[in-house]
Write a structure and sequence with these properties.
By secondary structure, the protein is mainly alpha-helical. It has a single domain, classed as Winged helix-like DNA-binding domain superfamily/Winged helix DNA-binding domain (Arc Repressor Mutant, subunit A, Orthogonal Bundle), CATH 1.10.10. Helices cover 57% and strands 11% of the residues. It has a two-stranded antiparallel ribbon with strand order 1-2. A hairpin with a 2-residue loop joins strand 1 and strand 2. Helix 1 packs antiparallel against helix 4 and helix 2 crosses helix 4. The longest helix has 13 residues.
């Protein structure tokens, strides 16, 4: 992942509503959510939701697909994993991470 992509993704997530939107899409998984469902669940107006979704789309963190009359938004798990990989690359100088190792997690 290029550094410019990382900066764009982190900037998109550095806003409370966008972070909540992204997390909701991650939790939902591959079936995704419609804008109406997201707006209702997060208590965000349609116009504000549209603005935030555009920012997440631009950062490559989500995708949109038309399904008849609805748009379905989904988390872009490949991009999310690439971002996490970039952030944890060379973690702890190649040693097991303290907190992760203490929790029994085999990776950072």
């Amino acid at each position: 992942m290029e550094e410019s992509q990382v900066v764009k993704a982190l900037a998109a997530l550095a806003q409370p509503v966008r972070l909540q939107l992204f997390r909701a899409l991650v939790v939902t998984g591959p079936q995704g959510l419609t804008p109406g469902t997201m707006a209702e669940g997060l208590g965000v107006s349609a116009s504000a939701l549209s603005f935030h979704l555009k920012e997440l789309l631009h950062a490559g963190l989500i995708t949109a697909e038309r399904s008849s009359r609805n748009l379905i938004y989904r988390a872009e798990f490949g991009q999310m994993n690439a971002l996490l990989g970039y952030l944890t690359e060379n973690c702890c100088q190649g040693s097991a991470c303290g907190p992760a190792a203490a929790n029994g997690c085999s990776s950072c």
